[in-house]
């Protein structure tokens, strides 16, 4: 009997801890992480918001974790502690006294340091794991910029009065913190003026959803009791639904919920919109555009305007149809990206954008943002002009030399076709006379068929070499305008080739029947061996054109920015071989500066801006190499096409195109 009792006791000793471990290690559905920087004049409002959280408190499916840094100056309640503490928020109904479980007092810390933010979030994720994470940045906010010189304590986000620091978007500090944290479901800014396109692009690779305000918020901020109560009732809610709950429970702010997975498409639309704005300015519509800008709703920071409202004013203005169309594309994309809005003003549609009224107020820090590398919006802001005289060139003697089938003086011309029984490549060689970029390809087709468009650089013997770009489409029996998703930048005297690939099509590509020889139209039946079309009696000059652009810079500061960017690119000198590739590509680069991280990442994106893969390289100076096998982060092969490699280390950045052809 004694042995039996001893055995039972032993089993209890063993089994109870197992049950306890299973119960405590089970992940919650949500961990809400609030980075509450009260080391400034918002300290008292932090006390109020903390007590709002305690009305609900943490539950089995919800962890509410707060890191609260207080000030020595503004609020003496709750023991008047002035250090930084971490709390596990528990339920209580006293709305003036914080009674949650104190996990640790970490002393005085700099809440304006991105490393402090990363340390908190990683600590919370490790100790309170969940299926989903909401990270709330609680403090002052000022959008993308670091508002140096302001007498008000508004500095990007998370202004720490003791240190005088803040977490800047333009200087890369916010993205640095988020990269160290890893993926989160929602990033929320209970702070003013943060719901900007520039900020969204910066954080989109780290989070799926973003909640914030285009305008200033009341100091009372979000209603934490309201949305945490909704979450306690429905802990299985998805990120977008929780975002909607946050804004629908807050009655005092202009808030919106944005699907960050769709930001890439909006960025492409803004890029095209900027190009057409520059073209319209060059055509004499500057005053019309300025009027539309001045009629657009702006926010407390007067250079921040509502993007949808601006596009709508452009759409309704007397401007070229191409500009109206791109404005409508921006509006449609915003309708898709913004999932919910709660407005205190009529013309706030969920996303703001920086648009100073003149170049005088342009902030040079803007060039550090991701959007300055991905789009032409910064060129538009800096007063660059789309020079239409560098548009479509076809005749010999132009700045760009391609085919000579179209006389710009209006002389008549005719189109012929040719019969193709096998796979066929038609190509035209173009030569630049100054640095600029390819915006679109225009080709005349005599038949409807599926095609592949290739743009090559020039190799030995003036023949097509590496593929710079590839895309597919369906041709129509007319002139076809084929825009490139991202313009291809070329330097002076660079040759490039435009090739149309067809298979078993009848009279596919229009040719000119004139007797002159451009010596720039080539044909190939295998894509490797090329012959001049005019040497083959079947063909003449192919009707393929290139639409190009260059920019006239209007200020010394702009030239300085471009010079700095070029210097950064020269320092990294990224090279990809082979490019295109079908199995594995070697990506080499030279690192002349190192950052604070122990390891760095080369990031690979698709053409929509979606992060596909990250490749780790060491934090050391000198030549380094990484290899990509064409797989995404899940180990699946990505489709053939164009992707982008991006390196950022220290103060250096470089973006380069890579093509997969299997």
From TrEMBL:
<dbReference type="Pfam" id="PF03415">
    <property type="entry name" value="Peptidase_C11"/>
</dbReference>
<dbReference type="InterPro" id="IPR005077">
    <property type="entry name" value="Peptidase_C11"/>
</dbReference>
<dbReference type="InterPro" id="IPR026444">
    <property type="entry name" value="Secre_tail"/>
</dbReference>
<feature type="domain" description="Secretion system C-terminal sorting">
    <location>
        <begin position="576"/>
        <end position="660"/>
    </location>
</feature>
<dbReference type="Pfam" id="PF18962">
    <property type="entry name" value="Por_Secre_tail"/>
</dbReference>
<protein>
    <recommendedName>
        <fullName>Secretion system C-terminal sorting domain-containing protein</fullName>
    </recommendedName>
</protein>
């Amino acid at each position: 009997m004694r042995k039996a009792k001893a055995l039972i006791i032993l089993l209890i000793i063993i089994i109870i801890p197992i049950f306890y471990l299973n119960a405590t290690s089970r992940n919650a559905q949500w961990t809400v992480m609030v980075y509450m920087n009260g080391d400034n004049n918002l300290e008292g409002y932090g006390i109020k918001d903390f007590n709002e959280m305690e009305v609900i408190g943490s539950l089995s499916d919800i962890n509410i974790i707060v890191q609260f840094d207080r000030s020595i100056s503004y609020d003496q309640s709750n023991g008047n502690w002035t250090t930084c503490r971490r709390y596990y928020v528990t339920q209580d109904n006293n709305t003036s006294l914080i009674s949650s479980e104190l996990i640790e007092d970490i002393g005085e810390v700099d809440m304006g340091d991105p490393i402090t933010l990363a340390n908190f979030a990683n600590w919370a994720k490790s100790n309170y794991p969940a299926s989903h994470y909401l990270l709330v940045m609680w403090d002052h906010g000022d959008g993308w910029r670091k508002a140096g010189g302001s007498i008000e304590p508004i500095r990007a986000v998370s202004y720490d009065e003791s240190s005088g620091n803040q977490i800047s978007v333009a200087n890369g500090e916010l993205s640095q913190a988020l990269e160290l944290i890893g993926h989160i479901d929602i990033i929320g800014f209970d702070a003013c003026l943060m719901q900007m396109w520039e900020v969204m692009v910066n954080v989109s690779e780290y989070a799926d959803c973003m909640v914030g305000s285009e305008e200033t918020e009341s100091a009372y901020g979000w209603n934490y009791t309201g949305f945490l109560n909704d979450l306690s009732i429905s802990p299985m809610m998805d990120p977008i639904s929780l975002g909607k709950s946050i804004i629908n429970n807050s009655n005092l702010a202009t808030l919106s919920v944005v699907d960050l997975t769709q930001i890439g498409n909006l960025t492409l639309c803004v890029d095209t919109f900027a190009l057409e704005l520059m073209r319209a300015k060059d055509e004499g519509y500057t005053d019309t555009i300025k009027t539309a800008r001045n009629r657009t709703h702006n926010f407390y920071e007067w250079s921040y305007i509502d993007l949808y409202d601006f596009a709508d004013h452009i759409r309704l203005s007397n401007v070229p149809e191409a500009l109206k169309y791109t404005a409508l594309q921006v509006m449609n994309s915003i309708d898709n990206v913004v999932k919910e809005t709660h407005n205190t003003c009529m013309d706030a549609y969920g996303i703001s954008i920086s648009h100073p009224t003149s170049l005088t107020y342009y902030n040079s820090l803007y060039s550090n943002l991701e959007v300055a590398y991905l789009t032409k919006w910064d060129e538009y802001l800096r007063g660059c002009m789309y020079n239409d005289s560098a548009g479509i060139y076809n005749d010999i003697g132009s700045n760009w030399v391609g085919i000579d089938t179209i006389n710009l003086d209006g002389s008549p011309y005719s189109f012929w076709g040719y019969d193709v029984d096998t796979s066929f490549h038609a190509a035209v060689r173009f030569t630049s006379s100054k640095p600029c970029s390819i915006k679109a390809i225009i080709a005349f087709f005599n038949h409807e068929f599926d095609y592949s468009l290739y743009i090559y650089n020039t190799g030995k013997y003036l023949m097509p070499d590496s593929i710079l770009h590839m895309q597919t489409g369906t041709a129509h029996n007319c002139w076809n305008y084929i825009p490139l998703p991202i313009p291809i930048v070329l330097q002076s005297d660079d040759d490039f080739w435009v090739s149309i690939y067809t298979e078993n099509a009848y009279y596919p590509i229009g040719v000119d029947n004139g007797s002159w020889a451009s010596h720039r139209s080539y044909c190939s039946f295998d894509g490797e061996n090329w012959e001049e079309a005019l040497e083959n009696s079947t063909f003449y000059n192919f009707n393929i054109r290139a639409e190009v652009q260059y920019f006239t810079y209007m200020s010394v500061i702009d030239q300085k920015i471009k010079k700095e960017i070029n210097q950064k690119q020269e320092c990294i000198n990224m090279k990809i071989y082979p490019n295109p590739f079908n199995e594995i590509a070697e990506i080499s680069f030279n690192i002349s500066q190192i950052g604070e991280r122990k390891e760095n990442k080369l990031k690979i994106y698709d053409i929509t801006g979606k992060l596909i893969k990250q490749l780790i390289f060491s934090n050391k100076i000198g030549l380094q190499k990484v290899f990509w096998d064409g797989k995404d982060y899940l180990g699946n092969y990505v489709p053939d096409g164009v992707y982008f490699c991006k390196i950022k280390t220290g103060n250096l950045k470089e973006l380069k195109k890579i093509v997969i052809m299997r």
